[in-house]
Design brief:
mainly beta, Jelly Rolls, about 15% helix
């Protein structure tokens, strides 16, 4: 085959969503409360579909099950990663995710959820909730029961270009006015700790998962300082943000012409800005902002030309 797999994303409406996915990426979104673009996904709750080549019309899940050779024969029972773009038009709930062991036991075999965020854009005074102040489980429970949210939750300012690594067990929330590319384990398990007592269109509050949250939260909070490593070579600046248990994530800033060797079983790529051309074995593919694609195992070398910025990940 030796072809990249370009993908049609799936969009998810959320109480906190907005129109940034249409405004910034020109996506055809289902409503003015669209919170998530599941850009590269093999998760049953929203599967991306291939739009080019011999596998056009196939979902990532189908390819994972029927053509594992495209992914270097990787042994995970499910496609292991999920790339999203999130439009936090309002504050997300304060939440925490379980690890693999807990999720397998309590969530029907679902993977746990370690994730990371690249801040694409945000309001000038934007912030996020990352971690908590409790020193012990007893203190954590007491502060939740007494509604001491301002004292419990740690807030950090954010700016475009920031990167955050969010292991399972970390209390977190994106806040109003942030647009984020998220790379995560392929999981849709979220435990809500606090949702600002807000109500949906029917006047109902959303379900909270206090007991499970208490069971899975890391106490005390552990900081995850990201130390990006930047490498410059002909035509491209490669920033490695994180190399962790479940994924490695990079930013590629291409300026001109760059050649690449595929040294992973497969790679996931999202074009965040600019435009250019991807060349694979004499074939050219147009790249523009909002494109998402997989470079499968049988692509050994490739070239990118143009002025563009991509977020790239692999297992």
């Amino acid at each position: 085959m030796n072809q990249p797999l370009f993908l049609q994303p799936v969009f998810q409406e959320r109480i906190w969503g907005g129109t940034a996915l249409k405004d910034q990426f020109n996506y055809d979104i289902p409503s003015d409360q669209t919170g998530e673009c599941w850009a590269i996904s093999g998760h049953p709750n929203g599967q991306s579909t291939v739009v080019n080549g011999e596998f056009a019309g196939k979902t990532i899940g189908e390819l994972w099950n029927e053509h594992r050779e495209l992914f270097g024969g990787h042994t995970s029972p499910v496609f292991p990663l999920l790339t999203k773009i999130l439009d936090a038009n309002a504050d997300l709930s304060v939440q925490v995710h379980p690890d693999d062991t807990y999720a397998k036991e309590h969530e029907n075999g679902e993977l746990g959820k370690t994730e990371c965020w690249y801040i694409i854009d945000c309001d000038e005074d934007a912030e996020m909730i990352f971690g908590h102040t409790a020193g012990t489980k007893e203190e954590f429970v007491s502060m939740i029961e007494n509604g001491e949210w301002n004292d419990l939750l740690r807030r950090l300012p954010v700016k475009p270009g920031d990167f955050f690594y969010v292991p399972s067990g970390t209390i977190h929330a994106l806040c109003k006015g942030t647009l984020v590319l998220e790379t995560q384990q392929s999981s849709d398990t979220t435990y809500r700790v606090y949702d600002y007592d807000r109500r949906d269109a029917e006047g109902n509050t959303r379900e909270l998962h206090i007991e499970k949250s208490i069971e899975v939260t890391t106490i005390p909070h552990r900081n995850t300082d990201v130390q990006p490593a930047v490498e410059e070579r002909d035509g491209v600046e490669v920033t490695k943000f994180v190399k962790a248990e479940y994924f490695t994530v990079y930013k590629w800033r291409v300026d001109g012409h760059a050649s690449f060797v595929q040294n992973q079983p497969f790679q996931l790529a999202s074009v965040l800005d600019g435009e250019g051309t991807l060349k694979v074995q004499g074939e050219s593919y147009t790249l523009k902002k909002g494109n998402h694609f997989i470079l499968p195992a049988d692509i050994e070398t490739f070239e990118i030309e143009g002025q563009l910025e991509l977020i790239v990940s692999h297992v």
